[in-house]
Amino acid sequence: MAAPDGTLNCEDFSMFQDVLKVMRNIDDRIVHSLNTTVPTVSFSGRVDASQTCRQLYESLMEAHLSRDRAIKTCIAQTSEVVGQLREQRTKDGDMTTVKLLRKEQTKLKLMRSELNVEEVVNDRSLKVFSERCRTHYTPPTVK
Prior knowledge:
InterPro entries: MIX23. This is Protein MIX23. The protein has helices at residues 13-23, 25-28, 30-37, 49-92, 95-133. 74% of the residues lie in helices and 0% in strands. The relative contact order is 0.15. The chain is rod-shaped, with a radius of gyration of 20 Å. The chain starts with 12 loop residues before the first helix and ends in a 10-residue tail after the last helix. It has one domain (13-37, 48-134).
């Protein structure tokens, strides 16, 4: 997972959220995408709705996996930093280290909460997708 320019900044939570916002564009615009690509009954003969729904589903899944990997990668990196700061705190107990540890712990909690946000965004998108495409395309079942 990376930002559009190929970089992911896990150190700055605001930048991290900005990257996620850009990556969530497909989910934010799912209704518009479905309205413009999936034909109504009167136009069903002019467009292959099953192919269109399949392509949209694949794009959604790719975006969901990409964001999930990004969030989990940043959580792992931040967890590692928290672990290092905990060790450093036990060694010297410096107040600067304690403040930095609290800051990193807060960032870690915020990143973990992004996993919950991601779950809600994914569920909403898949619900809208299935409402519009259920007669045209059935996604494979995930085991």
